[in-house]
């Protein structure tokens, strides 16, 4: 029992907290940066790029490396692709000392479509065993968490989260518009760079270790804004806390609803998040008088 608690349950709980907190924090930062409540960590294609890296390693890795999944090359490939996608999008959107958010968004949509197409192609050419691994990984799970992974992931999430939290006031100023923020003394370009780097660091690392888990980064900031208003000094840490709670509840459901089998986390978060998001839209529709 002690072994199960310390070596299986505890790492899983901590990983769920890291995933939920990182996605909630990244989602609130993205929504503030884009001034769009529909933005989430997957908007720029970072999540799908990480998923493509992992899929490529699952299907093609054995051509170059012995047992790539067993020896832990999967997170490395996923993070490398996520980081490369971030650099590619930044190079498209940055020009003459400025970072154009609309161009960044369009580049993200293109990268997202390209990554999804690549994943589809890899699924098409995969064999039965690879297809099962791909399917389970793409739906997300914290079942593979252990102390070694947590020791590698936690400092990166702490760095990325610290960068995002350190720019809460600047993101508040950006809600007024870039020109107004500059008049208030906010270094707009530097803030954009740091926030994008922090989001890429958090999301790329988490997706690399747990697979794609959707809706947490979208729902958690929404709930906290409804609860305490749009001030990022409240929304960002509160979204991280609420995201962690959501992930703990989702992981509990994943382990118990169909025991002894396990339901992938991505299924549960989508089943919960999609109706919740529709309810939010209906509420907004009523507020707008439509």
From TrEMBL:
<keyword id="KW-0813">Transport</keyword>
<protein>
    <submittedName>
        <fullName>Hemin ABC transporter, permease protein</fullName>
    </submittedName>
</protein>
<feature type="transmembrane region" description="Helical">
    <location>
        <begin position="103"/>
        <end position="125"/>
    </location>
</feature>
<keyword id="KW-1003">Cell membrane</keyword>
<feature type="transmembrane region" description="Helical">
    <location>
        <begin position="194"/>
        <end position="222"/>
    </location>
</feature>
<dbReference type="Pfam" id="PF01032">
    <property type="entry name" value="FecCD"/>
</dbReference>
<keyword id="KW-0812">Transmembrane</keyword>
<comment type="similarity">
    <text>Belongs to the binding-protein-dependent transport system permease family. FecCD subfamily.</text>
</comment>
<feature type="transmembrane region" description="Helical">
    <location>
        <begin position="70"/>
        <end position="91"/>
    </location>
</feature>
<feature type="transmembrane region" description="Helical">
    <location>
        <begin position="145"/>
        <end position="165"/>
    </location>
</feature>
<feature type="transmembrane region" description="Helical">
    <location>
        <begin position="42"/>
        <end position="64"/>
    </location>
</feature>
<feature type="transmembrane region" description="Helical">
    <location>
        <begin position="265"/>
        <end position="282"/>
    </location>
</feature>
<keyword id="KW-1133">Transmembrane helix</keyword>
<feature type="transmembrane region" description="Helical">
    <location>
        <begin position="12"/>
        <end position="30"/>
    </location>
</feature>
<dbReference type="InterPro" id="IPR000522">
    <property type="entry name" value="ABC_transptr_permease_BtuC"/>
</dbReference>
<dbReference type="InterPro" id="IPR037294">
    <property type="entry name" value="ABC_BtuC-like"/>
</dbReference>
<feature type="transmembrane region" description="Helical">
    <location>
        <begin position="234"/>
        <end position="253"/>
    </location>
</feature>
<keyword id="KW-0472">Membrane</keyword>
């Amino acid at each position: 029992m002690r072994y199960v608690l310390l070596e299986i349950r505890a790492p899983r709980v901590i990983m769920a907290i890291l995933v939920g907190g990182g996605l909630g924090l990244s989602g609130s930062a993205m929504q503030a940066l884009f001034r769009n409540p529909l933005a989430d960590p997957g908007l720029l294609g970072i999540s799908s790029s990480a998923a493509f890296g992992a899929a490529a390693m699952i299907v093609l890795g054995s051509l170059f490396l012995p047992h790539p999944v067993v020896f832990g090359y999967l997170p490395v490939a996923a993070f490398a692709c996520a980081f490369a996608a971030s650099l590619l999008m930044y190079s498209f959107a940055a020009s003459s000392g400025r970072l154009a958010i609309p161009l960044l968004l369009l580049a993200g949509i293109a990268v997202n479509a390209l990554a999804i197409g690549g994943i589809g192609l890899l699924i098409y050419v995969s064999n039965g065993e690879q297809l099962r691994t791909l399917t389970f990984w793409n739906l997300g799970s914290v079942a593979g968490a252990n102390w070694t992974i947590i020791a590698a992931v936690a400092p990166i999430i702490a760095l990325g989260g610290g960068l995002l939290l350190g720019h809460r006031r600047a993101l508040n100023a950006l809600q007024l518009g870039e020109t107004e923020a500059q008049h208030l003394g906010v270094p707009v370009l530097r803030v954009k760079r740091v926030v994008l780097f922090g989001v890429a660091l958090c999301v790329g690392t988490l997706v690399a270790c747990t697979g794609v888990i959707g809706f947490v980064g979208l729902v958690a900031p929404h709930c906290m804004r409804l609860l305490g208003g749009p001030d990022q000094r409240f929304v960002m840490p509160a979204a991280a806390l609420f995201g962690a709670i959501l992930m703990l509840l989702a992981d509990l459901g994943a382990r118990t609803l169909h025991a002894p089998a396990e339901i992938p986390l991505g299924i549960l978060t989508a089943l919960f998040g999609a109706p919740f998001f529709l309810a939010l839209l209906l509420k907004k529709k009523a507020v707008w008088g439509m």
